[in-house]
Amino acid sequence: QVVGFSNSEAMALLVRTLASQGYRKFGYIGGTTARDTRGSQRRSGFQRTVEELGLGPGRMISFGVPPITMEQGGQAIVSLLERWPDTEVVLCVSDLSAFGAIMECTRRGMKVPRDIAIAGFGDYEISSICHPRITTINVDCYGIGRQAAARLLHALQSGEATGDEITLTGYKVVLRESTDRNGAPTA
Q1: String of b and e for 40-69 (b: at least 16 CB within 10 Å)?
Q2: What is the CA radius of gyration of the chain?
Q3: 3-state secondary structure the chain
Q4: Phi-psi region of 22 (alpha: psi -120 to 50; beta: other; left: phi over 0)
Q5: Could you check whether the bond before residue 113 is cis, i.e. omega within 30 degrees of 0?
């Protein structure tokens, strides 16, 4: 029994949402290893979607062994912008790497989102309290836990194995200041 969401489709939704706001030159920051299946799926969703929308190939930087830290997010944004200085928006494998990227941009005198827009993934607490607040994907972790617990309790009470069933849960884009082209708070 598996309860969860499609990392690939969630990242694809983030790309489509930001493309609908006019962003065209997309970058991506993720890890250097395929051992992180969630990160690899997010990268795949990013790449597939920028190509489908005619915006790619995307500009991707792999930096460090997952999970990518805040410090590595800062280092990765520098590498990405040195290679592709006209990048408009960078999607990060997590909110932590996005926070690190934003802090490095701030240290370098860049304004987010005026000079570069940055988005994360996971809707961690840091994404809603930093400045600017980070656009992200909310994956309803508590809902996943509740559904998994309910399925486990049912299996224990009924004595029936649950098999190879997959239950997909929802996710949504949470738009915040880090990608707001108008500079107004959005969430």
Answers
A1: bbbbebbbbbbeeeebbebbbbbbbebebb
A2: 17
A3: CEEECCHHHHHHHHHHHHHHCCCCCEEEEECCCCCCHHHHHHHHHHHHHHHHCCCCCCEEEECCCCCCCHHHHHHHHHHHHHHCCCCCEEEECCHHHHHHHHHHHHHCCCCCCCCCEEECCCCCHHHHHCCCCCEEEECCHHHHHHHHHHHHHHHHHHCCCCCCCEEECCCEEECCHHHCCCCCCCC
A4: left
A5: yes
Cis status of the peptide bond prior to 132, with omega within 30 of 0? yes
CA quadruple 104, 96, 24, 171: dihedral, nearest 10: -160
The pLDDT tens digits along the chain (187 residues) read: 666 678 899 999 999 999 999 999 999 999 876 677 888 899 999 999 999 999 977 788 887 777 789 999 999 999 999 999 999 999 999 999 999 999 999 999 999 999 999 999 999 999 999 999 999 999 976 766 776 777 777 777 887 766 677 666 788 999 999 999 876 444 4
> Which domains are delineated in the chain?
2-139+171-179 (3.40.50.2300)
